[in-house]
Amino acid sequence: MTKPAVFTLLVVVVSVLVALAGTGMAGPEARTGVVAGAAIGGAFQLLSYWALLVLLPGRQMLGFGLGMLGRFALVAVVALVVLPLAGLPGAPTLFTLVSVLFATTLLEPVFLAADTRKSFDDR
Known about the structure:
By secondary structure, the chain is an all-alpha fold. 88% of the residues lie in helices and 0% in strands. The protein has four helices and no strands. Helix 1 (3-25) packs antiparallel against helix 4, helix 2 (31-55) runs parallel beside helix 4 (90-122) and helix 3 (60-86) runs antiparallel to helix 4 (90-122). The longest helix has 33 residues, at 90-122. It is globular.
């Protein structure tokens, strides 16, 4: 299994675990927000990681920095636009979104560093 495939699997696992933990702790009215936050966070993390691999090969630090800016923008857009339009509960949705982004962001450098070492070894 390739490193990007392992990362993709880990993001899905983290998103599902955060959603399950959140729905177990949240009341019935907040569960939709918990699941939505986990889904949005996981999807954005996968989208940004794969975009980095395709659009910026060999420029991991630039991609990681752009990804961080994208994550901040995502939280702002969800808080200011998506929540009011979708009628989702704010705190459960944003807490779950940020939890997924935080946990998966901790994993990302490990896989980017592994790709960097591989690139240097190939030279």
